[in-house]
Please model this.
Amino acid sequence: MRISKDQYYMNIAKEVAGRSTCFRARHGAVVVLNDQIVATGYVGSPRKTKDCFERGNCLRTELNIPSGQRYELCRSVHAEQNALINAARAGVSLLGGVIYLYSERLIDNNFKIVEALPCFICKKMIINAGITDLVSLQVDGSLKKYSIEDWINDWQEKDIIDDKDQYGK
Model:
């Protein structure tokens, strides 16, 4: 049986996540425009800098910072951010694109699939990049599509902190 296009792109996002250099999480993002992959990104330190694997430690773990907090102290750039940056470096517009997000987190010393949702910083960047939808892998292996327009409408009515679809929640 042939897999769907959404599953095809999500499988690629999973492979991209395998390049992550974070001790806590593996995330992969694939941006598709007009049925063509135009950018990918994974969790990793900025180009030409040392990542957590090379340093042998996670700064946020050493400082006892819980997941989802104090991102400014993390050495890594998020998968979604890297995908958007990689598109910009290549001069590719993402207007009207769809982003596929795969996520695993370290839970009880094993990486386990978690609902793939961007943090608030990445959500804001996705909105401003003109992405129309986010396809997220769910814990049960299914795919869920989020309309970016729905995020915008929710934030017009409520505040960002009231967002019902939050990473790590």
In short: The chain has a mean pLDDT of 91. The longest strand covers residues 98-107.
